[in-house]
Amino acid sequence: MDKYRHIFRAYDIRGIFGEDLTPIVAVKIGGALSKHFPGVYCVCSDLRSSSQALKMALSSGLLGSGQNVVDAGFGPIGMAIYATKHLGYHVAYVTASHLPPEWNGIKLFKPNGLPICEEDLEKLAETVEREEFWVKAGEEGKYVSRDVLSEYYDFLLKVPKKTSRKLKIVVDCGNGAASLVVPRLLRDLGHDVIGINCDVDPLFRVRGSEPTPETTSFMGKLIRDFNADLGVSFDGDGDRALFFDEKGNTVTPEQAALVMLKAAPPGDVVANVECSSVVERFVQDRGGKVVKVPVGRIHMIFQAMKSNIVLGVESSGHYIPYGGVNLDDGILAVLQLIEALGTLDAPLSSLLVPMPLLRKIKIEISDEVKFRVVDWLKNTYLSKYEKVSTIDGVRVDLEDGWFLVRASNTEPAIRVTIESNNTEGLDRIEKMVRKDIEQAMKSLGSSQAKK
């Protein structure tokens, strides 16, 4: 099983179906869970083509190691979170989120909604290899089905306050799990819905499973043609939402978050270190504070669970809406934005805070050197600048912008994010950071980085 160790990532289990993530491996993962996290498991999945096979195999492993299984079937990840946070189950959710259809994975949750990650996943990997978890005949777990999707749907209906404003909304479910919930939900809440890609396709053959400005370029014209108030596109399992205003323009996650905050009571916000500075300025002006966390939805979830926050936002399009009532549920993020538009009673475009310019750069540097380069930069910047954060790589806030330098977790590269009010500022900061990286490479005795 050593060749499968790499599928146990920092925050979930992930691999290519039929190669490194197979039904046989899923059976053993189910057995390993019984050793470290025994209990009643709600097992469910997104709708990609390999999810059913992995879900059934995972269930078999749990049953064969003595754990009871509640099969919730198919649904968005919000359903899985609901099952753990509100119904008290351990949850194993089969999904690869926004990744291409040949990929799949497993997200694991403890009964309070806390994700299983890092050290716990390493323990699972070791136990899978030993395979010491099967029970004797007569000691197997019990299997039942439960319509958790309907319970989750009823929960969603009750979360928003009533608003008098009926909206026309273009909904792009990306042929994924949001298709099972969102169009009907918004209609039941009184809105006019124009659905596209709301038929399930396990292979995501229309636009792929990841909603980006490029893959959703059709949304602008649809929104304008239908004179809609809002547009939203989902990823494969519904944990990320990409918004569009009534003019068809893409809304950044930070802009959407600030609209939600305008209609919410003042309070603290959790945001990842890559989020725009406009979030911190807005929250501080209202007497709150922004708790910054490393990049990755898991860090936002952990912070939200131990803090009293009004909202969470990540630069990739993850939100923790309604103060964390169902953690990072992309469908609830849509409901909170809709509710905010009703409360503020204005077109979305008029509520958007102007964004500074953003630039992202990838510099190829070997895995052996990239972390040493970032450490060198940390030491240099801590002695050179006043506002420096080192919770994830190194971020430096300047008078006319900021920059973040991080070692990639998945590639032999360093990623640089730069924000400034104008192109000249972006160019100046980029030139400076590239020069500093070159200096770090020379000091460490390494060859030059590739552009």
UniProtKB/TrEMBL annotation:
For the protein in the UniProt heading, the enzyme class is isomerase
* UniProt-recorded Gene Ontology molecular function terms: metal ion binding; phosphoglucosamine mutase activity; phosphomannomutase activity
Q: Which InterPro entries match?
A: A-D-PHexomutase_a/b/a-I, A-D-PHexomutase_a/b/a-I/II/III, A-D-PHexomutase_a/b/a-II, A-D-PHexomutase_a/b/a-III, A-D-PHexomutase_C, A-D-PHexomutase_C_sf, Alpha-D-phosphohexomutase_SF
Q: Which domain of life does this protein belong to?
A: Archaea
What are the Alpha-D-phosphohexomutase alpha/beta/alpha domain coordinates in residue numbering?
A: 6-133, 151-248, 264-352
Q: Which cofactor does it need?
A: Mg(2+)
UniProt EC number = 5.4.2.10, 5.4.2.8
Instruction: Provide an example Pfam family for this protein.
Output: PGM_PMM_II
| GO biological process annotation, one example | carbohydrate metabolic process
List each copy of the Alpha-D-phosphohexomutase C-terminal domain by range. Answer: 382-435
Q: Does the keyword Disulfide bond apply?
A: no
Record keywords: Isomerase, Magnesium, Metal-binding, Phosphoprotein
Q: Which family does it belong to?
A: Belongs to the phosphohexose mutase family.
Name listed for the protein in its UniProt record: Phosphomannomutase / Phosphoglucosamine mutase
Q: Organism source for this protein?
A: Thermofilum adornatum 1505
